[in-house]
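Figure S4 source data
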Amino acid sequence: MGDKKQYKLSRTLSGHESDVKDVAYLSDGTVCSVSRDLTCRVWNGRESAVVYHATKYLNSVAEGGGYVYAGGLEGSIAVVKSGEVATALLGHEANVCALHWKDGVLASGSWDKTARVWKDNVLRYVLHGHDAAVWGVLVLSADEQLTASADCTIKLWHQGQAVRTFAGHSDVVRGLCPVGNGRFASSSNDGTVRVWDIESGKTVMELAGHTSFVYKVVYNEATGELVSCGEDRSVRVWDRNGKSVQVITLPATSVWSVALQGDDLAIGASDGKVRVFSRDVAQWASEQELQEFAEAVAHSGIGKDQVGEINERDLKDASILNGSGDAEGQVVMIKTPQGVVEAHQWSGGVWLKIGEVVGSSSTGTKKQVYEGKEYDYVFYVDAEEGRPQLALPYNTTENPYDAARRFLEKYELPQSHLEETARFIIKNTESVDLSSGPVEDPYGTRYVPGNAAASSSQTKLRAAQVKLAVVPYTEYVKLATFQAEPILNALRANNDKQPAEKQLSSSDLEEVSSALSNVSASNAGVLIKHSSHMVNSWQPADMLPALDILRIAVAYHPSPPAVAVIQMIFSTLDPGVPKHALLSLRALVNLFSNSEGRKLVKSAQVMQTATDTVQALMAGTPSAPISIAVSSLLLNYAVLFGTNFEQSLSLLDSIAAFTAKSTSPEADYRALLALGTVLANNRMDEVQQSVKNSTMLDWANAKATEDRSRKVLNDINQLV
């Protein structure tokens, strides 16, 4: 294949401060993007204008009829015209994660398990029928739509009624696009793209090549090609016969979205960048920019969750790079003389280094990549109310004051914080394990630019004395009860499904069986080791016993590898897969049982991810087990926050959201304990008023029907 058929980088669009979740081409040829930084931006060349600023993450965008539509965690859809919000489309009860417009008709999909069809911005149909979140939508005509769901199915709707179900994907279905001739394509967490015939309901082609979740797929009418992107950091181009003809690897953890117009692709990724690639030679970036991009990819860290456990026998000699690859997108791993494992990909007729496997070096050094460069540390800190976390990268070889000055200048923060920021770097790099997660806020409290000093909420302590019987609650709860035999039966059955190189050996199975028969602090590490292997190498559909074993082990281990555990939890804490999410959420609850876990769950990054997932899990009518797990998490956070006013006040929002959805008396009791604990530890006017202004007191009075609940309610009533 010649260069003219290859996509190459055209330009990088920088401006977003967090993951770019979705991109779209507008009718005038400009790019529009939405991000977790709460903004929707329209790009003119390399410059952008914010056309909408939400209060929560934005996840989806579409354009049509002169309007830009932006959806997200607020559950509403902003309708933007000429840079101003014209109206909002209301009705969804949770995150709006998918949008598609055609001929005056807009379809929206949500975590609330429904899709909605709007005609000229007026609701026409509510599509009920999926058993889980609706991740993808596609308008075929005013009367017909397709929806893709976390229940692993796709449905065809005619005038608001489901008329056909397409089954074949083995995991969450994430994206949809038309292919023409009565066909459409779908992408899935099972790592495949499928092409379907609408009339017969059958798969006519399956495209395999991605090594992880495939988030989106688009169709090029001019060439008959499909383009897909996913969690394996890649964008893949497939010809009309299903052959992979180009693989583009990005220096990011996730490639969330891709949009196509003519010879150009717009790509949104987790590093906050929008990148435009083109087949038009005249649009290609300069040689210097192309080289910088290649170096950023080459120096990216690749997690073991993407490549699995590395077997020394699979590593190749560097001489293999002197020959040709077997197919576009082929990846080989070689070991350098320094003991570092490098991944190289055959792309466009050459071998390209696409990263180093994180943690694979024999020296044990683990670098972190930020904006394409490696650092020993990347701290994420809260510097301003309502503003996303800011990254503070640092290498141990540089002067802390230089790193502090660079950080303050980049984010336009006052240089008066230079000393404080430098001390923060020094303090947190003297004894911090390189595998540790986010650490404390260097400002102590939230800083608002323009103020002479960091601002903290001035509150008034209540003088009244009260006699409390139950709260504040002071112990962390666990969700660790289990029956070993069903877990072991499922483990053995799923182990047999795996390729030989990924299976647990008979001795491994015996080791797990022995540990589960009498779990203790001394053998919990064995369970974490084996569950880690399964989570990182098995197919998602087979992971249930691995996640069950993980949450049990975390509850017993006195000092688990907290960062590795949290990575496993969040990689499987998918609201679209409720069974996985339940067990992962229980593991998160159990992580509070030890000091290392508590340090990590208190970080803003972990709390935000947990909160977002809880909102999704509580959408619709949550099951009793989900309700109990969520309320246990809220109670543990209430205990952990103690007298920290700002964190406790923020937690009240989550408790209030939970109380509107709880479906279990046991969950109600735990939520009552969480509410009472926040009030007892923070006897301040702002906390009391927040509770009084919500519906929590009405809920508490209605739910306190048991003796134990009434005791907590009595304490709460005294405190407010």
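Figure S5 source data
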Amino acid sequence: MTTTPALDGTPLAPARHRLQAVLDTHFGPDAAPGVTALGARDVLAGPAEDVYGAARPGATVHLTTRDVLVGPWGGDGSAPACGTCLAMRWQRLRSRSERDALETGRPWSFAPQWPHLPSFVTDAVIALCEGVLGSRGPSAPGPTAADRALPQVSRLDLSTLRVTTFPLYADPLCPHCGPDGDDTREGAELVLRSRPKPDPDTYRLRPTSAFPLAPAALANPVTGVLGAGTWLNITSPTTAPVAGSVFMRGYAGLTDVTWSGQANAFGTSRDLAYLEGLERYAGTHRRRGGAVLSARYRDVAQDALDPAECGFYSPDTYRDDPLVDPFDPDRPIPWVWGHSLRDERPVLVPARLVHYSAGVTADNFVFECSNGCAIGSCLEEAVLGAMLELIERDAFLLAWYGGTPLTELDLTTVADRTTRAMIDRAALLGYDVHAFDNRIDLAVPVVTALAVRRDGGPGIFSFGAGASLNATTALEGALSEVLTYIPHLPGQVAERLPELDSMARDFSKVLHLKDHAQLYGLPAMATHVRPYLAPRSVLSMAETYTSWDSARPRTDDLADDVRLCRDELVRAGHDVIVVDQTTPEQERMGLCTVCVLVPGLLPIDFGWSRQRALTMPRLRTAARRGGLRDTDLAESEIRHVPHPFP
């Protein structure tokens, strides 16, 4: 028997005790599987707070109010997991109300003597245990070899007696199965390796379908790493979207983190959605095991990034916003090790800038987001993707806040069939699409796209952006982003019309990510978009990017592309710091996730009161450096209008 009912102290204790007694009688006390309960105590708080903490790792029967979970069982032994891993995965998939009740100590009630376990239910549990826990258990199910290699968990639904089985990845934060070791200076060192590419203009070494992603383990309602499932939008007229979501707890409480893929086929979109979900999973919280350094900036300044280089909020924000405090160099904060590609040395980075849903009270000087986080099949692929994302957002903000006239790309001269199809699909929805060369002082192609609703109704403006070493790929990325949003934007604006109208009159009410894009669905915001409709000039893609295409090296080595972007950023006066975020699950899939920081580039922020870009020197100097104006931007020339980045 796992624990005595007197020690349980949980609402599920009577039912758990009855089930354990039945199993003890059938299998014998020494051979019976141990039973623990799920949903009665906060497992994520650690074994000390869990009444079943000592017994949970070895338990193979787990009772909830709705079902009985049996496992882990099976697998090929290459990725062992325990009952605590199962409990942690299961709890993260609960609803907001369930998680808040468990994790915040809010008052909650439980039906006494529930769940009832009549004999036909306990007989089913016995049969399931005999079927999967014995040495002659069945082969693990699963749609892919990666799923079948993992330990499995079988769920018996107490209302229907239906049995379903799901793969289980060990949880890297499990105190029993998580990786050992601390964050170290030596572990941060990295070397760019030669990575042969399929061709010079391809920056992904293999297609998304080539990764062993274990989809059944990533999205399922019992053990899903990324969420309880995925959904697709078969009515979308522009792309084939697939998305999923999960609640992640951070300094702002439980946040619904959504991950998605938007391609022209649902299978490809699903793979892209999983990759984005895995990137979010690695970026929100550190999942690499071990402790991080806690220290005052003054004590580590010689080896550390100065947080001021990444921007702070205005003094008014720190005065008025109760969730943030000014950075204090004498206050200990968590640090993680990264590697400078410019100086070829390890660098300490504030953990708050790397893991954007984690934080402590001492380091609440800024709210970061996923900007600069990227996933790839290798370090070089991930680093390149992260740098391009930072360059894209920086350029967009420079043009927006600086009011910089851009060169419009003549889309009638584009012959690429994929691009033409996207433009035509937007036209069928009643939108005209514009695209702009958004380079300011960096040579890497950045394209901003703008869709304008012809009849001027709700959802009138939608922006997107893309960056790539290949200008056509950058254009496709920007258009794809726009096409993802325009089918839904009119409805979103109509649903929130009074709220958005209020934001248009008072920008301080722009608080969340969705507010920025949806605000520009209002026709009243047309005056702020007008600079894009009066471009500096209109040129073809060939005219715009000939000098770039002729000057840049086009090799078959991905590492050369990484160096090209790095050198462009270094020439502009910036460091490039890489922090490895890769989780054990991702390593098993052959994936790598990084957070890249380029101190001094404009960071993308959401919420009008929290705009670091407005305070940073680069906003004032970049257009002059890029030859787009003769002088630095004067304070009176800065546009104090929320950006529309989606």
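The chain has a mean pLDDT of 92. The CA atoms of residues 70 and 128 lie 8 Å apart.
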